[in-house]
Design goal:
The protein is 73% helix and 0% strand. The chain is an all-alpha fold. It has two domains: 3-95, Rna Polymerase Sigma Factor, Chain: A; 98-197, Arc Repressor Mutant, subunit A.
Length: 201
């Protein structure tokens, strides 16, 4: 039986061939896992382009590290671990982008799938931490934040209500979100929340 007659989706065999530098088997592995990794990362980033970029980066890392590829015990779990780390890097980058900050807030405030007792407890504790962080904002930032995220007012409506400029409202919201994110990260809650939010891939 020649090489290409071997089962196409036998990961162990494909990885052994990839270690030898066989691009055909690398393409088979890429084709097998690309879509599910993309779906997972799209949930995280809310961006098709960025999700695709990270998928390619994950597989590029795999190709460049192929000398040790056969040492991976659970290949699918390995791929998700690398993708998860890339996703965390994405959230860390949010501090440099207002658009990413908004995506972050939407991710951490949307109710995740909490279908077991452990996850319900984690989410309950994380929700409590978010409220703690909000309560530590300055009175004006807290008011701006609540009007935006709890009463769903626009920037212009908040500015008119509080007699502020739209730029000031925007700055308050960005600073508030960054504070909440840092508070969650300091209390080791962000990774836990992400773990249950993206559990159902």
């Amino acid at each position: 039986m020649n090489d290409y007659a071997k089962p196409l989706y036998d990961d162990g065999y494909c990885l052994a061939k990839i270690k030898e530098g066989d691009e055909h088997f690398f393409n088979l592995i890429f084709g097998k896992y690309r879509n599910q990794l993309f779906a997972y990362l799209y949930k995280v980033t809310k961006s098709k382009d960025l999700a695709e970029e990270i998928v390619l980066d994950v597989f590029l890392k795999l190709w460049h590290g192929r000398d040790a590829i056969t040492e991976i015990q659970n290949f699918e779990a390995f791929l998700y671990k690398v993708a998860h780390n890339k996703a965390i890097d994405f959230f860390r980058s949010a501090k440099r982008s207002q658009a990413l900050q908004q995506a972050l807030w939407e991710a951490i405030t949307e109710t995740p799938a909490v279908d077991n007792a452990d996850n319900r407890l984690i989410f309950k504790n994380t929700d409590a931490l978010i409220k703690e962080a909000i309560n530590q904002l300055s009175p004006q930032r807290k008011k701006v934040f609540e009007l935006r995220h709890y009463e769903d007012l626009s920037y212009a409506e908040i500015a008119a209500t509080l007699n502020l400029s739209s730029n000031t409202v925007r700055n308050h919201l960005a600073a508030s979100l960054q504070f909440i994110r840092d508070y969650l990260e300091k209390n080791n809650a962000l990774v836990l929340l992400l773990a249950i939010y993206f559990q159902k891939k």
